[in-house]
Every structure is written in C-alpha cells, then in structure tokens.
Amino acid sequence: MKIRTQLLVLGLAAIVLILVLGGLSVYAKRKVDVALQANTLLTTVLRHHGEADMMHDALRGDVYEAILAGVNDDTAHIQEVKEALNKSPIAL
Fold this sequence. Notes:
mainly alpha; 2 helices; rod-shaped
C-alpha cells in the first residue's frame, strides 16, 4: 500500500472514530439529562411529602390541644387554641 493510501485510510478511520465518540457522548448526555430530571422530580416529591407530614403533625397537635381544652372546660385555653388555629398556615 502506498503511503498516500495509508494516510487516507488512517484519516478516514480517525474521522469515523470521532463521529462514533461524538454520537456516544450525545447519547450519554441525554441519559444523564433524563436521570437528572428524575432526580429533581423525586427530590421535589420528597420535600412536599415532608412538608405535608409536618403540617399533619401540627394539625394533630392543634386537635389534641383543642380536645384537652374542651375536656378540661378551660375557657382561656380554648381561646388560646382558637387563636393558634387562626394563625396556622393550614387554618380553615
């Protein structure tokens, strides 16, 4: 084989290799993007679940306080519970 032919074949092989590597990198980037979007969604879902759990616990505590105030027939405590419920972010 002539040197010119060898250089031409080597150059074409290098171009093909560069195209293959470029295609693989684009494919890998897309896979990483999908994984990152899934991770972001999961993080958001977990954060919202945690916030809902905290609000549930706060509401349960307020209900417990209201029951105690009602059982003890403590007018001052009942008023405090009403004020706390009105200030609550989950007030109805």
